[in-house]
Amino acid sequence: MENPFFMPLQQKPVILLMCGSFNPITNMHLRLFEIARDYLQDDGRYKVVKGILSPVSDHYKKKGLISASHRVEMARLATKGSDWIHVDAWESEQDAWIETIKRKALSCKIISSYLYFLFADQAKVMLLCGADVLHSFCVKDLWKKEDIEEIVGRFGILCVSRHGSSVPRQLIQDVDILWKCRFNIHIVDNWILNATSSTDVRREARRGHSVRFLVPDAVAKYIEGNRVYTDKSEQINSNSCLAPFSIHRRPETS
């Protein structure tokens, strides 16, 4: 078995951090980690030593967002068989929504404090995402400009996109902040088409349909056994404003 801690001296250790609702986690979420690791390690300059899943707290206020306790448990079930992808429940347990940049800073502290003490100072934390996250940088009031600069410029992004899609590269071309930090953005083509989304899974589950092979088997059994997705659950936060909008649109006080 390969030792995940062994690496040639010229390789830089990388920790991949994926933040999101995971409502629920799907096979595609897990595939993103594998695709990203293959891409970085094929490059020869990097060694991926850890993947971290960080589910958002209930205070994110997204419509249809079920309890973090369910989402975290499903994520743990999904990653139980992985020797390098793990779930960090810290964010989900907070009393308020935590901005992505603070999550990444926290991840650096976690990495520095345990397990990777041998090379934590040299480890690079990268945000792993799909093209939708890059696109979200353009949504007014969803992100702070300084946070985008910090995430992309200091940490870096690895964006997995459908093969043939020009969206991520076009966004980099069109958005000044992304263009400025373009050399810290990795765009990875996903050659195997899988458009399954958490929205699709919730819809099928609400209708009493099978979600097997869309999510890991243990997650499918959890969804069925606990009936976490119903017409009622889809109305959670239906009258609420998404947390980033509530925070970033607040008038400044003198």
Automatic annotation (TrEMBL):
GO terms for cellular component: nucleus. Pathway: Cofactor biosynthesis; NAD(+) biosynthesis; NAD(+) from nicotinamide D-ribonucleotide: step 1/1. It is an enzyme of class 2 (transferase). It holds the Pfam family CTP_transf_like. It comes from the Eukaryota. One of its GO terms (biological process) is NAD+ biosynthetic process. PANTHER family: NICOTINAMIDE MONONUCLEOTIDE ADENYLYLTRANSFERASE, NICOTINAMIDE_NICOTINIC ACID MONONUCLEOTIDE ADENYLYLTRANSFERASE 1. This is Nicotinamide-nucleotide adenylyltransferase. It comes from Eptatretus burgeri (Inshore hagfish).
